[in-house]
Amino acid sequence: MALWIVIGGLAVLVLIWITGYNRLIRYRNWVEEAWAQIDVQLKRRYDLIPNLVETVKGYAKHEKETLAQVVELRNQLGKTNMNRQDQMEVNDQLSGALKNLFALREAYPDLKANQNFQMLQEELTQTENKIAYSRQLYNNTVMKYNTKIQSVPTNILAGIHGFGKRDMLEATNEERQNVQVKF
Q1: Can you tell me the distance from the alpha carbon of 31 to that of 107, in angstroms, rounded to the nearest whole number?
Q2: What is the C-alpha to C-alpha distance for residues 183 and 177, in angstroms, rounded to an integer?
Q3: Which of 71, 77, 150, 168 might form a disulfide with 139, Cβ 3.0–4.6 angstroms?
Q4: CB 136 within 8 A of CB 3
């Protein structure tokens, strides 16, 4: 009788171990999937930028500095050896450069009315919104994962199996600055 109790107790412990491990795997995979969604949107933006730059070039020939900055940042994103943090930093810089590029439309009324520019600007705006949403989803998923690996009893399993804490994406100092509206 005592042998069956010991075997039953071991079976329950093994079942708890397997269930806990599988949950940790699920959470880790959700974090990776959330990052992949960010990557998809960044790729979309990466593909749209050359079309936007070519459209603007026709109207704003002397705005080479802004265009060169956008192209340079886009090319940096093409490097495959960047870690996630570096990739997000360059993307944040690119977001700022794109804002400067969109500001050119005020100086060039013909550009503002150009259908190609409007279409590309709308596509990029939608993409920027999707990137922001994907970043929120990623941070939410990382928060759930980190909570899971830090909570008892899964923290024991996480430590044994090497599940490490993930960093959330944060806004840069530039993004935290107040927007200056001047009339």
Answers
A1: 43
A2: 19
A3: 168
A4: no
Helix H or strand E encompassing 144? helix 115-150
DSSP 8-class letter at 32: H
Of 123, 41, 52, the closest CA to residue 88 belongs to 41
pLDDT class of 15 with cuts at 50, 70, 90 = very high
The CATH number linked to 157 is 1.20.1440.20
Reported as type and span, the H/E element at residue 6 is helix 2-59
Which one has a higher pLDDT value, 161 or 178? 161
Query: Would you say residue 44 has pLDDT above 90?
Result: no
Average pLDDT over residues 111-124: 74
CA–CA gap between residue 23 and residue 54 (Å, rounded): 48
Indicate whether 99 belongs to any domain. yes
In a domain, 182, yes or no: no
Domain count, the chain: 1
Q: Which two tokens stand for residue 120?
A: 């590309």
